[in-house]
Amino acid sequence: MDNTELGTGKIGQLVVKLAIPTMLAQLVNLLYNIVDRIYVGRIPEVGSLALAGLGVTFPIIMLVAAFAALAGNGGASRAAIAMGAGDIKKAERILGNSASLLVIFSAVLTVVFLIVKDPILLMFGASENTLPYASEYITIYLIGTVFVQLSLGLNAFITNQGFTKTSMATVCIGAALNIILDPVFIFVFDMGVKGAALATILSQAVSCVWVVAFFRGKRTVLKLRRHNFRLERKTAAAILSLGVSPFIMQLTECLVQLTFNNGMLKYGNDMYVALMSILFSMLQVVWMPISGLSQGVQPIIGYNYGARKLDRVKKAFKLMFMANLGFSLVVVGFVELFPQAFISMFTGDAAIIEIGTPAVRVYMAGMALMGAQSACQNTFIALGEAKISLFLAFLRKIILILPLALILPLIGGLGVWGLFLAEPISDVIAVAVTTTMFAVSSRRLLKE
């Protein structure tokens, strides 16, 4: 798609063209972790323990993704505003600096976590029974950190140029390969959780090659140029200042999972840690698609805001808001009606299914409204409002859910049920605050 179409095409058609493929890409991207858990959970005799082990590694995986969002999403949003203002050289400079930051982050994360992985996993909720599975998986996964960083981070620049089909292909290629390789490595080669990790990083490596090849090709508006790889303080600071909101969102998710895993081990046992692995996956089934839809609309909002076409910004936001909220309401509705069906995708363990059925209904209830949260928060990012988006990122996880997860289990002996209740309570409060702030701030930001 010609980049100028972002400023001239019909908003409804642009939303369909850009947001739907991005949303589908996020759904496919879910398969990276969900497929691993589905297969690992069915390893004979040790499936439940191995599933709990994978759940313990997820905070580290989220932290890797957080740094990809810091450089990738922050840079892509800045580049979209620059393109809207007609400054392609500046946008390419942002792209090059983002790529350099991604490589630096990858090197540091790989070295640090390989050195301290076992103590970190124990801190994240591993037990003597689950640590071997967690350590085996994360050791192999960390070797492929650079592939994960570049494929996730640079793919945001593909989306923000309007090439959502290419962006979706990046994810689909890796996810499809992961689906094929998982059962081969896990069961045919009898590699267990090591096979799941190997399948994941090989798939991400292929996605990474695809993304880099795109930015060296003829179709892209923005190209990776060697002279832009040299970090510039002002450019890097601009990228990081806007990327800090999605970074905090991912980082706080890591902290939340750490708290929940430890809580489940403290008030329950390894079975509850395995259940949390399933619940986190189900939460992502709602959050990642609406986040993907929001990211698909971001280039429309960012470009037109940079071009000062504010009527188009308002129309794009309204469509995104309605689509996001509708999606979250429908998906959570299905989860509330058929919780056993969703849990059974991950495990055949009757005990986990029994305790998980009422827990799912409680834990997921607040996610029904998260479409509104995602729409407002991502629009703040698209408009370049780093401080507001940063506060909202802190609000739901740091200010609300973490304290609730620590306090509620102690009230009236709630234990694990206090943890299950912490999520919906924080979701409802966060949505109320975010939508109110957006209603007030948008009048100032979008004033003609």
Automatic annotation (TrEMBL):
Recorded GO CC terms: plasma membrane
Regions crossing the membrane: 14-35, 47-73, 94-117, 137-158, 170-189, 195-215, 236-260, 272-290, 319-342, 398-422, 428-446
One Gene Ontology term from the biological process aspect of the record:
response to antibiotic
Localization: Cell membrane
Q: Which GO terms describe its molecular function?
A: antiporter activity; xenobiotic transmembrane transporter activity
Q: Keyword Amino-acid biosynthesis: yes or no?
A: no
Q: Which UniProt keywords apply?
A: Antibiotic resistance, Cell membrane, Membrane, Transmembrane, Transmembrane helix, Transport
- Stored CDD domains: MATE_MepA_like
* Predominant cellular place of this UniProt entry's protein: membrane
The cross-references to PANTHER family, in alphabetical order and at most eight, read: MULTIDRUG EXPORT PROTEIN MEPA (PTHR43823:SF3), SPORULATION PROTEIN YKVU (PTHR43823)
Q: Which family does it belong to?
A: Belongs to the multi antimicrobial extrusion (MATE) (TC 2.A.66.1) family. MepA subfamily.
Q: What is this protein called?
A: Multidrug export protein MepA
